[in-house]
Amino acid sequence: MRTELQAHRKRNLSSKITRVCVCLVFLHFFPFFFFLSFMHHKIFFKKKKNKIGRCFLPQHVQLTLKSDDVEDYTQILEKTTAPIQDRLHRIDGLVEVMRKTGERIASKSKKRTEPEIQEKEEKKEVAVMETFPFKIDPRPIRVNAVQLQYPNIIYMTKDYDDPIKTSVTNIQWGRSGGGYIGGMVPLRNWAIVVNSKDNYADNQIANIERGWNSFVASRGLPESSVANPSVLRIDFGNIDGYRAILQKAYQLVILALPEKEIGSQYKSQFTRILQSDKASNKACLIQCLLGRNASDPNVIKGSFDAIMAKIGNVLFQIDPNLPNGSKVINMNKTWCVGMELSHRAEKPSAIILALSTAPLEGSLRSWHFTTHLNPSRKDVITLEAASTLMFDALKMAVENVGSRNLPENIIFLRGGMPDNRLHELYSKEVVGVARGINRFKGLFEKTDENVKKWKCKLTYVVRCKNVLDRFGQLQEGGRVGPIESPAVIFDGVTSERYVVIQQHKQKKKVTNNIHRFWDFYVWPYHLKKEESKTRPSRYVVLRDDIGLAKKGGTFDLFQLIYSLSYTYVFSIPFPRYMGPTASPGPLQYAKHYAERFSQMIFKADKSIDMLKRSNKLINQPQVSVPVQDNETTN
Predict the structure, then answer these.
(1) CA torsion 621→625→630→634, rounded to 10°?
(2) How far apart, in whole angstroms, are the C-alpha atoms of residue 457 and residue 335?
């Protein structure tokens, strides 16, 4: 069987510029992997004298429409989310116009002239070519990609005592989902909290209680592990009512909130009071839902799934189907970290580091979150902040799982970073994370033999934001359609660059550490996901201590990153209905809690101490304060 994915790449023939547009072809690779090939229109731009830059055409040509210009907003969506065949046709048309324009300008500059003015004309030609300095070859070239395999999902059903394993495309979560893997964490002391000023409060209570009874019956949960909720009616406008909840020392409360901005304000206030460090051991977990959604059975069931994950139940596990099994990446000895940020106007930027000791579990029990506040709109954090975030997260994780379970590998995923910030990011954050690991080892190896023997390999991967590239599959007859399988693009349209990391000074000797980074695109296709909502993600590997490139483990990394997109527990039952999240689970968790944390920051806050959380809530963000240290870094 032969399938082709097409795109276009246009190559520069006469000057230092090349335009890019993409084209994809499938060949056998592994038993379940395939080679693909595609197209891009590639361009080299002359940025400065004697310096050439390389970029993609889609990064410079983006269609933007104002909603005020049209009466029907669907017209904008039809234009901006056109099928891939229409997108490529547009780009091909644009490239053809540019090619002809370049030829016309070049032909005008080549008029026959007298010998005495030939030199002047040549200077004019150079000036014209600097204005439009390229000629694009319309012929496409093919590059390689790989078709990825859907991961398997493991979960409990009511019909079997042991977990079942099936493809994420075949899960029947709503109809057959049963208990939880490894036993159930009980939910006994919890409450429903409604606004006493809300005229629909009684209906909200009745709907939530009805949804709870239905949820317990459908999941087949044991009566000994669950209890009916208490009901609290308080005035959401009175802070004293919030504090009264703390006296009950609940395990969890579920809040029925109003819509719009007032609902967000109530949510932030509840979080600040019920989960602050001042609440101490009486702090509790929170689950919010809009009061008007309390009558929707699907929303209620999803809310209780989230509750069960928050208190520590394992809803499912993901088997990533790595090509080399556990030979290169042993997931039982691998921790994953995600770091994302949230920008809000006139507020500090909240940055969350999310570390999981069991990244393939659908649960919050293995997650630990540390928080740093950066100056507003600033993406990169300082070396000291990165070191402290990593150190604090490691400390929390080891307190939870023990030093005997320290990992062989740490795979670090960083989100929301453009290409032009990678040099700065490496010198500050990558070095800082490595320093945080070394700092943890140096501090505890004297008192803990397991820490003393511990050796860890760090792999650091950046997910670049604002990727405009789109890909299409070449079908019979030369037609282009949407890609109908998950895939990774790693050749031809990706980078081959070397960057100078840092100058390392030791014993009066200065050496440059040169590091090669490589990048790839992941196409997170799913059967139930619309083409217009599927966008590729570009990843750049900045550090590879595991030696994936040398050990033949690059395809394991591709498959793992795609599989991690199915681990964000709050999206259940995503495998069947919506497909994977846009980014891997560690980044999705980090982004989720960064957004939530930034909502808790008020203009009246004068100290970071006002944002600290209770240590009882080990799977909620904890504020980290950067410290200076003199430790040298690899």
Answers:
(1) 20
(2) 11
Identify the three-state secondary structure at position 194.
strand
CATH 3.30.420.10 domain locations along the chain: 333-471+478-623
First CA to last CA distance, the chain? 48
pLDDT in tens, 476-535: 777 777 788 888 888 766 765 544 444 444 555 555 555 456 888 888 877 666 666 677
Residue 22: half-sphere exposure toward Cβ, Cα within 13 Å: 31
Name which of 108-112, 593-597, 600-604 the model is least confident about: 108-112
From CA 230, how far away is CA 157, in angstroms rounded? 29
Q: Which fold has domain 333-471+478-623?
A: Nucleotidyltransferase; domain 5 (3.30.420)
The token pair that represents 368 in the structure block: 């630990």
CA quadruple 490, 583, 580, 352: dihedral sign? positive
Three-state SS for 366?
coil
Cα(144)–Cα(633) distance, integer angstroms: 37
138 Cβ partners below 8 Å, 6+ apart?
10, 92, 95, 96, 99
Q: Are 511 and 504 within 8 A, CB to CB? A: yes
- State how beta strands 34-40 and 22-23 pair: antiparallel
Query: Check: CATH 3.40.50.2300 for 186-310?
Result: yes
Q: Check: CB of residue 40 under 8 Å from CB of residue 492.
A: yes
Strand spans (E) along 327-366: 334-342, 349-356
**Which residues make up the CATH 3.40.50.2300 domain(s) of the chain?**
186-310
d(CA 29, CA 38): 16
Using DSSP, state whether 248 is helix, strand or coil: coil
Q: What share of the chain is helix, strand, coil (3-state, %, to 5)?
A: 35, 25, 40
Confidence of residue 62 (pLDDT cuts 50, 70, 90): low
Tell whether the torsion through CA atoms of 381, 433, 585 and 302 is positive or negative. negative
Beta strand segments in 49-151, E: 51-56, 143-147
pTM of the prediction? 0.83
DSSP 411: E
Q: What are the start-end ranges of the H helices in 337-487?
A: 383-401, 422-425, 431-444, 449-453
- 348-380 pLDDT tens trace: 899 999 999 999 999 999 999 999 999 888 899
Kindly state the percentage of the chain with pLDDT values over 70: 74
Instruction: Report how far residue 300's alpha carbon sits from residue 278's, in angstroms, rounded to the nearest whole number.
Output: 31
Around Cβ 478, how many Cβ atoms within 10 Å? Answer: 8
Q: Which residues contact 415 (CB under 8 A, 6 or more apart)?
A: 338, 339, 340, 341, 462, 463, 465, 583, 587, 590, 591
Q: Max alpha carbon distance in the chain (Å)?
A: 101
